[in-house]
Amino acid sequence: MITMVNQIVDNCPGQDDREQVITTAETHLHKFWARPMKNAIIAHLHEGGEGLSDTAQEVIRRLEARRQKAG
Q1: DSSP assigned state of 34
Q2: What angle, 0 to 180 degrees and rounded to 10, lies between the N-to-C axes of helices 18-32 and 54-70?
Q3: Tens-digit pLDDT string for the chain (71 aa)
């Protein structure tokens, strides 16, 4: 999953706009990843996020924030 998140981030359109990449990647994970995958990658981030790029870490933080906001 770590590789997958990094690849999603690396292949998002608008690589010159970090905010756009984060938004696009977070939306992708929200829409297309199963709940167990989301839980696992969020847990990995809480354990230090080893192997995740800085941008991928921010994507996961925002994914978690969206989930918390939704209740």
Answers
A1: -
A2: 50
A3: 999 999 999 999 999 999 999 999 999 999 999 999 999 999 999 999 999 999 999 999 999 999 999 87
Rounded to whole angstroms, the Cα distance separating 56 from 10 reads: 9
Helix axes 35-46, 18-32, angle to 10 degrees: 130
Distance of alpha carbon 44 from alpha carbon 40, whole angstroms: 6
* pTM for this predicted structure: 0.94
Contact 26, 67 (CB under 8 A): no
Report how far apart, in Å, the C-alpha atoms of 36 and of each of 8, 21, 58 are: 18, 23, 19
**Structural domain that includes position 19:** 2-70
Query: Structurally, how many domains does the chain consist of?
Result: 1
